[in-house]
Amino acid sequence: MKILLVSNKVKTYNLGFQNEIEPLLEAGHEVVWAADFSSFVGDRAEAIPFETRHIDIKSSPFDKRNRSAYKALLDILREGGYDVVQSSTPIGGLLARMAAKKMKIPLVIYEAHGFLFFEGAPLINRTVYKAQEHLMSRWTDVLVTINDEDYRAAQKMKLKKGGKIFMIHGAGVEVGQSRECDREAKRAEIGLPDDAVAIVSAGILNKNKNNRVIIEALGKLENKNVYYVVCGEGDEEAELRALAESLGVAERVLFLGFRTDMKQIMLACDIFAMPSFREGVPRALLEAMDLGLPCIGTRTRGIRELIGNDKLLCGGSSAEEFAAAIDYVINNPEDCERIVARNVEEAKLYSKERVRAEYAAIYEEVLK
To answer: Which residues does 365 contact at the CB level (< 8 Å), separation at least 6?
Structure first.
């Protein structure tokens, strides 16, 4: 079969998408990938072993440029020969399913990497975005979810006649990784004192990732030897720097930008923090769990299931709760040993091998 895969902005192939797409290639299907590759790290012609098409899909549903993206998808489909349209991001999924309906594509697959109308979401998410997903489900043959909450929500949607709903274990991560690291050298490289307690986060710096609550928590800790290592780029960086300065913790917040050595940075740190307001199944959190870090995070879908410990789960806006969770990790080393052992076992459930097998089983069933 010939499959058009549609997604929003893509930075890498081998982090997530590879486990989704390679089972298709191995089964002999032809794949064309339409996405925004403007921020791709490296040469996609060398990194991606099949045809790609760049289109300017924007993540905001209100961006008028998505009209052009929709027309570009129609032009690709008019070339003919496509049997399946498969999409995996909210706006990519919206535009792809609209285009598939117009062009009468026989099979439509949508992978929900985290519905926007999650428990505790803002009102607009629980109304407008929920209505959008329910409408789009009527144009969907196969709906793939990645966590329990979304799977339950999908059961209430009305798919096309004969439609099927599946759940897989995220995008798949490397587990059982080596923990070899020259901790002292890496700390020196990034400007982290040898005796500091280091918290690390990874991801784009935006409001959803909520790095500000960890910076605020630093200001509330009595222990002034706790540092925060922030890995990632984004529009919030200037505001986060200003916040750290205003709280008098700027010297203890290290902004490292986009990094390709996250494994070594995690191993050089002591605690991983995932303070996001919304996640699907966060890869960075799973990688930290596999590497043996105690993890703290927000009490929200996709994070609470993985961390599974009330002492380490916090309200997204509560710097006090995050400060208490940090103190708990620092002051309870024996309990943290049990937490780490549990984290390592939990991460195994989300291995890339398991996820690839889950994708392969779904494709075998629906792409006959």
So the answer is: 164
Q: What domains, with CATH codes, occur in the chain? A: 2-172+351-366 (3.40.50.2000), 183-348 (3.40.50.2000)
- Angle value at C-alpha 354, between 7 and 272, nearest 5 degrees: 75
**pLDDT per position as a tens digit, 274-283:** 999 999 899 9
Q: Give dist(CA 146, CA 281) in Å, integer.
A: 7
Query: pLDDT at position 66, please?
Result: 92
pLDDT exceeds cutoff 90 at 118: no
For the chain, first and last CA: distance in Å? 9
Give me the mean pLDDT over the 247-254 stretch: 98
Place of tokens 């710096």: 205
CA distances (Å), origin 316, targets 118, 267, 313, 327: 14, 25, 9, 17
> Which residues partner with 30 through β-bridges?
2
